[in-house]
Amino acid sequence: MDGLLAKARGFLREASPSRKLVLLLIALVALAALLINSLGVDKPTVVSSPVPSSSGFGQSSVNSPTFYVHIVGRVKSPGVYSLNVGSRLFDAVVAAGGFLNDADQGSVNLARQLTDGEQVIVLKLGVAGTESVNSSGSVLGLVSLNRGTEAELESLPGVGPALAGRIIDWRQANGGFKRKEDLLQVGGIGDKLFSGLSKLISL
Known about the structure:
By secondary structure, this protein is an alpha/beta fold. It has helices at about 1-15, 15-40, 90-95, 150-155, 160-175, 190-195; strands spanning about 65-75, 80-85, 120, 140, 140-145, 200.
């Protein structure tokens, strides 16, 4: 080390003033670099915001419970639809493609909350009766031809499962019953049976 220093002193003595200045600058830069490295300089820390993971805790999707509703009558696509629990009747109409032009929108309560397994019937204009209908499809204790369920129709005297099914098929195919006498057009219902049913049914 002493030998190197001696050589450096000899070189400086022999060097010109301009060269001495350059060497001095180089030495200062080297010294500064050495000091910086020895002291250490904190590097900037980059903090990234955590990105929520779709598979992380509390992020998993939860499927809403569903139920089934059968909507028929004057809608574009009658059928059975799966809806979220808590859906209302207008959700079923939307699922079925909306009303047809001749649908009597007043024949259904669009704001009513639906239940699993029920059937919704949208009547044709001019078909709905003027009597007050309750949520079960009965009018003042009578069974509605246009709104009654298969079980309610079977409760009528002389009407079994097969005949109740034909009544429902007829009202779906014809947009509902316009008058009680239309029941005579259903196969298996004659004048005698109709006479016994006429006072127990409503539109």
